[in-house]
Amino acid sequence: MRALLGFGDQRPSLSAVSLLGAVSALMLASLLHPSAAFFIVVPLALILPIMYAYEWFFAWRQQLAVLILVILFIPIQRYAMAGGLPFQLEPYRILVALMLAGWVMSLLIDERVTFRRSGFEEPIVLIAVASLFSELANSQRIATLDVQPEVIKGLMFLGSFFLIFYLVVSVVRTRADVERVLEVLCAGGGVLGIFAVIEYRTHYDAFDHLQRLMPFLTRLWPDGPGLSRGGDVRVIASAQHPIALGAVFVILVPLSVYLAMRPGKRIWWVAAFAVMIGALASVSRTSIVMLAAVGLVFLWQRPRQTLKAWPLIVPAVLAIQLAVPGALRNVESSFFPQGGLVAQQSANGDQNRLSRWGPTLKEWRRDPLVGEGFSTRQPQMHPETTVLDDQWLKSLVETGILGVLGWLWLFGRSIGRLSREAREDERGGWLELALAAGVTSFAVGMAFYDAFSFIQVTVILFILLALDASLGLARESESEATARGASAATVGSGESS
To answer: Exposed, middle or buried by CB within 10 Å (0-12, 13-18, 19+), for 82?
Structure first.
């Protein structure tokens, strides 16, 4: 399993044997039937490069990069592969299953691949316990509502998020590794931002037509009428909803800015601009609130440098107006509707966020400790359980105080540790600050949409949390190496004297 860590100093003999065998098979097929050669050439052209350089293809760097790109560019719950199974065989599910299987095998047989404590074990355990206890305490309700499959599916998704988290913690071991992962994330996000601008201006979603490039994909649902705000169609691109797409872009904004701030890396400003434009193209109030959270984190940690950047707002606004005309106007009107935002969000029964708080809190009071059951609110099956558009409120009513405390603990520990390291890091702490801003923006955005229902942005969150853990472990390793070096130098000087 050396390939998992990207090791290997020579090409495997298996590749040479495979190449010789493939050429022999091709020659034999050509002699038997000339047309048969075609059916061998095409598969060989695809398979042989992987066989010859499998150590590169299956190194963790490439696996994580492929996972990120699949998550970013193949819309989740929009495409699947034919399989005849009782669940949708979506590409990201297949990839995650294969990666996790390889990781578990490596943990068992390769001493170089080890399970590493992340420093987040306590809140993770609390979240898991709260979710399981909420199911046990509400087993009769789950049976009455007939939502057992949905509950099991929700628990499996939660478990897969944490498994991805620990996989990344296990294989991302240095600061340079963290930056490589961020480069893939932000480069992919930049390309996605460009497609979002194209969709905003033309109403053409390229991700609705992936079957032309990937004929093995099957469309799960037909084209819909689209979502609009202020008369303009809201961009969805590869996401499940415009709000979730905007959230992805906002999370990537501080990370792209960090990459661009490195010496000689100004090209990353293109990615930073693209994700910023993409966030506004979603015409989402949630995106604006999350952007404000990012700005406040930078202002809190780097007030002088942040205030110096304010003059850039004017050219940025002009560029935004040119790229996505009308987006700023629509965002403004969404924040300042006729009659006021609070009145709008309190009206129309249970159709708006604020109006849902009262009835939902009454439900929560029935069992405030563990809630009414994780993943039991299924509006598509039981319309009386409305979509809350508030992940914090949803977690409270489903998993009670225990579940919310677990998530608060997880976010608080991550943001607190990153903020502390940003102040103490001798390299400036901009990487830690960017990660803290990204995680903070997700936590703030949870109050405005049911974040965990959208897999793309949630996977990205757990990757960022894992990078936070890996940075902490890398810092500990550097400190231990420095201490060992100092100890060895002291011993050496004592012997020489």
So the answer is: exposed
CA distance 116 to 172: 11
In whole angstroms, give the CA distance from residue 413 to residue 421: 12
Contact 414, 421 (CB under 8 A): no
CA 475 to chain centre: 24
Burial class of residue 248, CB neighbours in 10 A (0-12, 13-18, 19+): buried
Within 10 A of 100 (CB to CB), how many other CB atoms are there? 15
Beta bridge partners of 234: 227
Report pLDDT for 494: 57
Assign 449 to helix, strand or coil.
coil
pLDDT confidence of 1, banded at 50, 70, 90? very low
- DSSP class of residue 235 equals P
Q: What is the pLDDT of residue 379?
A: 67
pLDDT in tens, 434-459: 999 999 999 999 999 999 999 999 99
Give the residue, 343 or 219, on which the prediction is more confident: 219
pLDDT on residue 6 = 43
Sequence ranges of the domains in the chain:
1-7+15-23+32-58, 59-337+350-478
Q: Helix 242-261 to helix 285-301 angle, to the nearest 10 degrees?
A: 30
Judging by beta carbons within 10 Å of its beta carbon (0-12, 13-18, 19+), is residue 174 exposed, middle or buried? middle
Nearest CA-CA partner of 259 in 306, 189, 318, 319: 189
Return the SS3 of 87. coil
Element holding 217 (H helix, E strand)? strand 217-219
Instruction: Fill in the amino acid letter for 480.
Output: E
How many Å separate Cα 46 from the centre of its chain?
A: 29
Residues with Cβ < 8 Å from 214, sequence gap 6 or more?
Answer: 74, 79
In this prediction the pTM is: 0.84
160 with 92: CB under 8 angstroms?
no
Whole-angstrom Cα distance, residue 50 to residue 322?
Answer: 44
Task: List the beta bridge partners of residue 232.
Answer: 229
Query: What tokens were used for 315?
Result: 């050219």
